[in-house]
Design a protein that fits this description.
It contains 27 helices and 10 strands. By secondary structure, it is α+β, with helices and mostly antiparallel strands. The strands form 2 sheets. The protein has a 5-stranded antiparallel beta sheet. It starts with a helix and ends with a helix. It comes from Aquibacillus rhizosphaerae.
């Protein structure tokens, strides 16, 4: 083993550990791994930069804009709402919306579909007295099953397509994957509405859990007007000057002044006599509040979160995204109030409320924040990719500002481009370029909106991962790993090799991210096919599907993360419901690949 090969393996293993341990954002970790190959001379400057001009990566960037335009149209949301309607049974409703979601996810980025529909599904479930946990995991899983059907169904497919083009291969056509994945998707949907439905939990969402216990988390203090012996030292001071900003374990979320409710509370907000100050957090730390001169504890408060809201204010749940700028920062360091016109009432992780000082909580992907939001929150949240809003917003633009002509134009243009790609007139990359240009010219989406929806950190991760994969090829590490894989599975024949390749890809997907897993397994799949003398396409399709078929945890795939908190799920729910589905998809995929190519 050469030093280059050993170094490559060490870097990849270190990268995997860092991704699992969440030392930093995934794109930063993979980029650092790429730079290490450049600094040591394993990769040339052109090889390092190649991923940033890869056709598959650029197509993913264009699809972010296309998906944003379709999401803005509101057609998917309205269509699903009308389909749900008043069905004969819960399972009938589930089937009615899973099929079109799977179909839509085959042609659109599934993340915005799930983001858009999560609040819609929750609202429908509340109106029909159904637990949203019976519908939200199926929503995510159906979008994943749709994503493995076509080239444009998910970014992973486009990433592998780009890698194939770099290797001088033909790449995927629009429906290459469907020849293998269609049976798996059909069986997966049937499982979700039958046996899988029984395994789904009947959890309350976090909003309801908190609503039931909100009094346990809220404390009310009165700013005394007649303070003994001297004027109240709190009165006419700002919140910061009064020492109410960085308290130990409690967090000022609102002020009630006469009939006015002030939130989110800014550092500069002046305190007046007889103000009622509402705190949330560790009520066991209330002693610090009682020690504040001029404040008096109001015992037996009848304040609840619902009573705090103004006419235009809302209680909103949001889920911290993978690409959030808030990640790994403490809430007090993010200037949350100023940025989003909302205060954090509670933070939930793994469906459990984090019992520590809210300002000191370091945010991670999938954290669910319960916010007391002001009037500007909706507009500001639409301009951010920091979190997914999973509560129906009363003034959501989709409800009030839909231009039906532009909405249908966006669908029609995309449909025409898909048809042209299907019959081989133009490539997927060229089709998406034309689509985006037409959207901008027809003002279906503005330049600012397009720029805002391009997830740069995802593109950086993909581009950097291309370089890491190139290093595995170039140093011979991929060949060595493929040989070890074949030796390990040799007693079980070629089916054993396929199964082990699929399992490794699935494990990597659940541990890190789907795109990183796909890029890491691509060179190993090619080398394994070459050593066995088999058609590489069979092995590449296998890892493409395995990299996207993430059903075992909320971490491996963004759509699973989005529904994690809103469904009130536990980590084990994904294993319980997702394990049989994973086995169905794996078995079907391996059998189809063997039947068609081997």
């Amino acid at each position: 083993m050469t030093w280059e090969m050993a170094f490559s393996l060490i870097v990849v293993i270190t990268m995997m550990v860092a991704l699992v341990k969440e030392f930093a954002r995934p794109d930063i970790i993979v980029f650092v791994a790429l730079i290490s190959f450049f600094v040591t001379g394993i990769l040339t400057p052109s090889e390092v930069a190649a991923g940033f001009s890869n056709e598959g990566m650029l197509t993913v960037g264009l699809l972010f804009i296309v998906a944003a335009a379709i999401q803005k149209s509101g057609l998917v949301e309205r269509g699903i709402t009308s389909l749900l309607g008043n069905s004969k049974s819960e399972r009938h409703s589930l089937f009615k919306f899973l099929v079109p979601i799977t179909g839509a996810s085959a042609f659109l980025n599934n993340t915005p579909i799930v983001v858009t529909l999560t609040p819609t599904i929750r609202k429908w479930c509340a109106e029909h007295n159904i637990s949203p946990s019976k519908f939200l995991i199926p929503l995510s899983y159906a979008s994943i099953l749709g994503g493995i059907l076509t080239l444009m169904g998910t970014s992973t497919n486009l990433v592998i397509h780009g890698l194939m083009l770099d290797q001088g291969m033909e790449g995927y056509s629009l429906f290459t994957l469907a020849t293998v994945s269609l049976p798996a998707s059909i069986l997966g949907i049937l499982y979700l509405v039958t046996f899988g439905y029984k395994l789904l939990p009947d959890h309350k969402p976090i909003g309801e859990i908190f609503g039931d216990k909100s009094k346990e988390y809220l404390t009310e203090m009165i700013v005394e007007e007649n303070y003994p012996y001297l004027d109240n030292p709190m009165v006419n001071k700002s919140v910061e000057a009064a020492g109410l900003r960085n308290l130990d374990g409690v967090y000022l979320i609102a002020i009630i002044r006469n009939h006015e409710k002030i939130y989110p509370v800014k550092n500069s907000t002046k305190i007046k006599a007889n103000d009622r100050l509402i705190f949330t957090g560790l009520i066991t730390k209330i002693a610090e509040l009682q020690d504040k001169k001029g404040l008096k504890l109001k015992t037996g408060t009848n304040i609840t979160l619902d009573k705090l809201r103004n006419g235009n204010g809302q209680l909103v749940e949001v889920v911290v995204s993978h690409q959030s700028s808030l990640l790994y920062h403490k809430i007090k360091d993010t200037q949350f109030r100023a940025k989003y016109d909302s205060g954090v009432v509670a933070v939930h992780r793994n469906n459990e409320r984090i019992d520590s000082k809210i300002g000191d909580i370091t945010l991670k992907p999938g954290d669910t924040l319960l916010l007391l939001a002001g009037t500007d929150f909706e507009e500001r949240s639409l301009e951010s990719n920091d979190f997914y809003v999973v509560t129906p917003l009363s003034n959501h633009p989709l409800l009030n500002k839909v231009d039906s002509k532009k909405a249908w134009a966006s669908i029609s243009i995309l449909g025409i481009m898909i048809a042209l790609v299907t019959i081989g007139v133009i490539s997927m990359f060229k089709a998406m370029c034309i689509t985006v240009v037409l959207y901008l010219l027809l003002k279906i989406i503005s330049g600012d909106e397009a720029k805002r929806h391009i997830e740069l950190n995802v593109l950086i991760l993909i581009a950097s991962a291309f370089g890491v994969g190139k290093a595995l090829f170039k140093t011979g590490a991929a060949d060595w790993l493929a040989n070890q894989l074949i030796l390990l599975s040799n007693p079980f024949g070629q089916i054993g090799v396929l199964l082990l390749l699929y399992l490794l890809t699935t494990i990597f997907t659940e541990m890190v991210t789907n795109n990183a897993a796909a890029v890491l397994m691509f060179p190993i799949a090619i080398e394994a096919a070459n050593r066995l003398g088999e058609e590489p396409m069979a092995f590449i399709i296998l890892i493409t599907i395995a990299a996207s078929a993430s059903f075992l945890s909320p971490i491996g795939y963004q759509t699973n993360l989005i529904v994690y908190g809103p469904g009130g799920y536990k980590f084990t729910d994904y294993i319980k419901v997702g394990m049989p589905l994973s086995l169905i998809v794996m078995t079907t995929t391996v059998l189809m690949v063997s039947w068609i190519w081997i």
